[in-house]
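User: Predict the full complex structure for these chains.
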Amino acid sequence: MVAWAKEGHEAAFRELIRRYERPVFALVYRMVRDRALAEDLAQETFIKVLNALASYNPDYKFSSWIFKIANNAAIDHLRKKDLDTLSLDGAPDADTPDALKATQLQIGTGGESPLDEVASRELGGAIERAIARLRPEYRACILLRFVEGYSYEEIADVMEIPLGTVKTYIHRARNELRQHLADRRPETPPAKAP
Amino acid sequence: MTDLTLQHLTTEELELWAQGLLGAARTMHLTECTLCLAEAEQERRMHLALAQLPLFAPRAGFADRVMAQVKVPKTSGGFQVS
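Assistant: Here is the predicted structure of the two-chain assembly.
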């Protein structure tokens, strides 16, 4: 499909958009938690990728390339805006208990970014809230691993980080997610009135 | 010789178990280890929750909005604005 697009077939461009618009948008939306912004960033991603198609290396997975651009756009935005960086763990590179504690962020103290009505409804589930509480790098790893089904090696490629770092991020992120879900006991239905 | 059923499951094995891909020999460990069983149950809940995440899509007309800003190369070597 990419080769066909490189030959100048508009239909091939549209097919590439059709194939990837949902996963790219979903990744960006869960990263930035704002529908309009996610759409802008996803749009920028496609424009950037499709206009640079001539330089695409077919040895590299097209999906990895487009996710890399999308993830970078989302991470760059979050860094600029300093949004949603709450994490139960300390800094990813903290390697002692003291360093972890020093860099640990307290849930609730920073305040969550305001969500618009749609995002609040769509992203309001327990797992979505748990994902939102992860720091952006953890969030991207978890989404690529468990939603997109990427291997650890592919995630390392997309995020341009060492394989060991991917493993660390996913290990910490899954612990946070599991903890958050474990803390939420299933709601007991009210007893029936006699 | 090490008895596989006595070793705690690794993180990778817990993930495989949650996906139904862990071998029988290692799965047997869960019948004897309440610690790993609790971990495995947490892992399963997380996988289930992630598997049920809804699919999101951008607004209708996304492709048109993108294509309006993409230069489609001409087969002769130039570009055509779609």
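The interface with chain B takes residues 6-10, 13-14, 17-18, 21-22, 25-26, 29-30, 38-39, 42-43, 46-47, 50-51, 53-54, 122, 126-128, 130, 142, 146-147, 171, 174, 177-178, 181-182 of chain A (CB under 8 Å).
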